UniProtKB/TrEMBL annotation:
Residues 75-186 form the Lcl C-terminal domain. It comes from Candidatus Nitrotoga arctica. It comes from the Bacteria. This is Lcl C-terminal domain-containing protein. InterPro entries: Lcl_C.
Amino acid sequence: MAPNAAAGRWPPLFDAYILVLSVHEAYYRHMKKLIITLTALLLTLNVAWADTLKKPEVPSAAPAKLPPGYIINGGLTWAPITATPVTLAEAINICSSSTALGYKWRLPTKDELVALTRYDGSTLGIRHEIAYRSNVSALRSQGWTLYDVWSSTPGTVFGLQFIVNLEGGITNYGDENGVSHVSCVK
């Protein structure tokens, strides 16, 4: 199409099209620069954030001989069970604030407590064989009295938490405001 001879210009529609193309091209260049800049910023922040992550603690060697009441079972070290029952909040505080033997302790999960009561280390919550072999005598030989013990596993009902009876590895619910015994694990 030739320019309009009278005006010496292209038709107005063509001028508008050229203007739109130039705006789009400028917008595209601007967005490309913005994306490159933001990507570089995110990568920089990601590297900086990764450097601030807490490095995993190297586990210290287990003591040559554990003090009475402490046991190792299933790759976990267990602190002796408490003599007095406490609420769930107190149990969590007891374990998280303990530095016994130089370790950081936590409240065990329901499955860890069930496995503690079994020779084979399995975590099935129900007795699956007639000759159910428990670890009760081994726990008692360490001075443990086998009570219901708090777990860190929340119940499926609000306000209830799983507890495990160490006599037979039976799980049940305990009211968070009720009391039960504590054994911490690391």
